[in-house]
What we know:
Helix content: over 70%
Number of helices: 13
Amino acid sequence: xxxxxxxxxxxxxxxxxxxxxxxxxxxxxxxxxxxxxxxxxxxxxxxxxxxxxxxxxxxxxxxxxxxxxxxxxxxxxxxxxxxxxxxxxxxxxxxxxxxxxxxxxxxxxxxxxxxxxxxxxxxxxxxxxxxxxxxxxxxxxxxxxxxxxxxxxxxxxxxxxxxxxxxxxxxxxxxxxxxxxxxxxxxxxxxxxxxxxxxxxxxxxxxxxxxxxxxxxxxxxxxxxxxxxxxxxxxxxxxxxxxxxxxxxxxxxxxxxxxxxxxxxxxxxxxxxxxxxxxxxxxxxxxxxxxxxxxxxxxxxxxxxxxxxxxxxxxxxxxxxxxxxxxxxxxxxxxxxxxxxxxxxxxxxxx
Length: 351
């Protein structure tokens, strides 16, 4: 039987449903405690869930900058379609093992209904690179945010151990910047397939794949290299939008901390200070989650990240646990929404 795009779509859809159900039944708390936490959140669950409407929209705008750069003059992909694929892609990334093995193939398959396979592939790879690249900038600038708050008289801890950790994180980010600069200058798909061939048992597959698709892969690499060199404005607009989306994550944590009476001292300045602390919480948590990103929904890693980050900022373990559980509820709700959006009917150019 010939495997079609629809077969793959249906498989990813069913896999997403299964993983969402598994996550619902594998919470670290029983349903009574979980329901109690949801009741404690109360109407604040609305902004906690709603802020992701804006975050995903900013993600979609960042991806649109890349897609527009790859389309031919007679091709068009609507912002609504990009927005829908953004949500569904992240839903699959968050629910399937080895994250990007779910969302990125789905996005490529769907985009080939609007443009060529090479253009769809390069657009998805470029956006995935940009998404990861923005994380490095988020972590890097968070180092200076932490130092700035300490120098401003904030009560954040600072000692030799924390200083060494910040230095190691800075070196990690600088190494990331270097490797991404190489990828953006030269492309990376041909090299990645070559590296895969060095894994025991995959050499023959890698060789055959390169022989069959070398022209397409080189075309993809050319389009990756062209974004930064030929359309730097689109590149930096996409990067800035992705970075802003990372900052907006702090709003989710801020809404949860307000439930515990945290206001940073009150007034606009107090809430701004609280928001900056929440940005640091998200920076630490996202770093933990991305270091071990192969687990479905970063099982356990996200909770560890919130526990470490909230403790480091002087908050109680109760607050860290509450934040991690409510964040997990939000993640499952949006995963379910994204999986459902996969079944929105669409007739594109390349059916």
